[in-house]
Design brief:
Elements (H helix, E strand, L loop, with lengths): L2 E6 L3 H11 L5 E7 L3 H7 L4 E3 L2 H7 L4 E4 L6 H10 L3 E5 L6 H14 L3 E4 L6 H12 L5 E7 L21 H17 L4 E7 L10 E8 L2 E7 L8 E7 L3 E5 L4 H6 L5 E3 L2 E2 L12 E4 L4 E4 L7 H13 L7 H20 L3 E2 H5 L1
Parallel strand pairs: 1-2, 1-4, 2-3, 4-5, 5-6, 7-10
Antiparallel strand pairs: 7-11, 8-9, 8-17, 9-10, 11-12, 12-15, 13-14, 15-16
Helix pairs in contact: 4-5, 5-10, 7-10
GO molecular function: nucleotide binding; oxidoreductase activity
Protein name: Oxidoreductase
Family: Belongs to the Gfo/Idh/MocA family.
Length: about 350
């Protein structure tokens, strides 16, 4: 039986990262959208009920799952209303803007007996899946140094909410949240953080550059994001006791989604070209004896929503729990504090 699903917001996030995985899915039925653009929704999604207010959607629709794609400063209020109405909730990253808000949502979801998950979809990037597999294979030996980049060439400030002052805005909360979540998946919580999160562009009023060091026992990890990278971009660089690995380029799924490529050709039938990396961007494993091209694993954002369906319908584990989303928020906040104070800060002390 399909899960009746509603979406709050009808902007880039909803249209690009969520709706394409609900359309043609045998597990979800999109029944409602909260939007201030009813004519646009009716034209593009005929048959889906449009509401101007979230409370009206919660009261009048029969949605079981609500996906929140509004700007992050509204996540807490919206998620609280949905959880209080005993709806399952998916929240676009970052989960919330403040640690106390995340703690409240974790507790409320547990009290209500419903799922609260954060959409850290880049756990299903092909490059990240490749790195996980390569580390697990032992070909790199013991990993000692990792760089994880999300660099772009965007030298001009754009007029959008993510680049304006406010709770949860700036590239560190926007893209750094993905890199932090991936780091936690690979290595768990670091012992300490040293961070530089600053505005570098002319007229920038929020963080648009970050260089964050995660300190582990016998492992250093760098998370880096710059708006001035016009050359081919390193995505991952990993150095271990047996060799090193370098991967260029970004996962193709976002560009496919922006181009209108559908992950599902029909109900239950995947697009055979979905999530496949360009051969020229395959990573290379370097050892003393040889160089080996490593085929990139296929990206698979659809697996997130498959896991959400399994969690709701079958009681399986939740992909990206609310607690995992909260851990990311804590590290985002700690990095900002480290940057402001200009010193290394203990993670253990902050998480107590």
């Amino acid at each position: 039986m399909a899960i009746k699903t509603a979406i709050v917001g009808y902007g880039y996030s909803a249209k690009t990262f969520h709706i394409p995985f609900l359309i043609n899915s045998e597990y979800f039925e999109l029944v409602a959208i909260k939007s201030s653009k009813p004519d646009e929704v009716n034209k593009e999604l005929p048959g889906v009920q449009v509401y101007s207010e979230v409370n009206e959607l919660l009261k009048s629709s029969d949605a079981e799952l609500v996906i929140i794609t509004a700007p992050s400063q509204y996540h807490y209020e919206l998620a609280t209303s949905c959880l209080q109405a005993k709806k399952h909730v998916v929240i676009e990253k970052p989960m919330v803007s403040e640690i106390a808000q995340g703690q409240s949502l974790v507790k409320l979801a547990e009290q209500q007996g419903v799922i609260c998950s954060v959409y850290h979809n880049r756990r299903w990037d092909g490059d990240f899946l490749t790195v996980k597999k390569l580390i697990s294979s032992g070909k790199l030996g013991a990993v000692r140094y990792v760089e994880s980049h999300y660099d772009r060439f965007r030298p001009l400030v754009r007029d959008r909410w993510r680049e304006q002052p406010g709770p949860g805005t700036g590239i560190w909360f926007d893209l750094g949240s993905h890199l932090l979540d991936q780091a936690l998946c690979l290595f768990g919580l670091p012992q300490a953080i040293t961070a530089r999160c600053i505005p570098l562009r002319d007229n920038s009023t929020t963080t648009d550059f970050f260089h964050v060091l995660l300190h582990y026992p016998q492992l250093e990890m760098v998370l880096h994001g710059s708006p001035y990278s016009a050359a081919p971009n390193i995505r991952f660089q990993i150095q271990g006791t047996k060799g090193s690995f370098i991967k260029l380029g970004l996962d193709p799924q976002e560009e496919q989604l922006k181009a209108g490529v559908k992950p599902l050709e029909s109900p239950g039938v995947m697009n055979s070209k979905w999530g496949k990396d360009n051969i020229e961007q395959y990573g290379v494993l370097y050892t003393e004896e040889q160089q080996e091209v490593i085929t990139t694993e296929d990206g698979c954002y659809q697996n997130y929503y498959q896991a959400i369906a399994d969690a709701i319908l079958k009681g399986h584990d939740v992909p990206v729990t609310a607690q995992e989303g909260l851990d990311v928020i804590k590290l985002l906040a700690l990095a900002v504090l480290s940057s402001d104070q200009g010193k290394t800060l203990s993670v253990d002390d902050f998480f107590k």
